[in-house]
Amino acid sequence: MLLSCSGGKEPIVSFYYWKTIFKLSETEREVLQDNNVAKLYIRYFDVGLHPQTQNPIPITPIRFQEKTSNFEIVPVIFIQNKVMLQPHLDVDDLVQKTVRLVNEINSKNQISCQQIQIDCDWSLKSKDNYLKFIEKFKKLSQKKLSATIRLHQVKYFKKTKIPNVDSGVLMYYNMGTIANDSSNSIYDQKVAARYLKSLKKYPLHLDFALPIFSWAVHIRNQRVIGLRSKLNVAQLKQDQNFEQVSTVFFKAKKSNYKNGVFYEEHDLLKIEAISEENIKQMAKDLQDNVAQEPNEIIFYDLDEFNIKNYEKSIFKQAVSYF
């Protein structure tokens, strides 16, 4: 048994899998083996609104191209907050359809799961529908239920309320504003510090999700016009169409297409990424403020593109802080 800094049992390493097709690369398989990963949180589908009818619909359900029998699978359902904001939402109907689709995906792929996770950044205006959804979902699915929790929901839990789930996962990222300055919206220690003290008062047991992804903020004429996923500094340094103008900013030297996106001359890309130092800092800050030790640290997200940016040992290093 591994003992952690705090003297207790070390949390386990898990990963989120957020692609629409489940197929592991060699690198991904290797990181799972190296870290004795037994549990994967797999995004099964999103729930959004139909553009015409405004009824809830499933978006891009996952397709499995290989067996998952080596892992305990936790299906994750990402529900857009605008679904929960619908004033006449038929919560019962949504619960039934969501449970049915999870069961269909499971039976088609011979997966049996003990737990389901609901991922929704609910707000004060959507909380009634959301809390009702959680109650009914738990009853109908007959599974353990976990929910993702954002920092603002921890700090203001008396207002935002606590969903009736077995446990929560604190999403320790996407805490800032996406802007055209040099700030990092994925992680900012100063922003996080405003919320950390509230962790000790939060009554629900929390595990922690830490980021290992990067993206680029696309800026034109000083305005943010989009987020471009799967981009990093190393990639842009090798691209003849862009020149590095500061640590995180790259400028389009001429109009060009990259990964199906059009960039005008002088457009800027700001890379937001997470360093190994950031990960250790997050783990330390969380450990200094937890009410209860986490059982697992879940990294977002399992993708060769992300993993290649880190030392192999970073995941074990992160959990060793707890």
Adjacency order of strands in the biggest sheet: 1-3-6-7-8-9-10-18
Mean pLDDT: 96
User: Could you name the CATH topology of the largest domain?
Assistant: TIM Barrel
The geometry reads as globular
What sequence of helices (H) and strands (E) makes up the elements? Answer: EEHEEEEHHEHEHHEHEEEHEEEEEHEHH
- Strand element count: 18
State the name of the first-level CATH class of the largest domain: Alpha Beta
Q: State the separation between the terminal residues, measured CA to CA.
A: 14 Å
Total number of distinct structural domains = 2
Largest sheet: 8 strands, parallel, barrel
Structural class by secondary-structure content: alpha/beta
Tell me the CATH superfamily of the largest domain: Glycosidases
The helix fraction, in percent, is 25-40%
Q: Note poorly predicted spans.
A: none
Q: Any idea what the radius of gyration is?
A: 20 Å
What's the architecture of the largest domain in CATH terms?
Answer: Alpha-Beta Barrel
Quickly count the helices: 11
Strand content: 25-35%
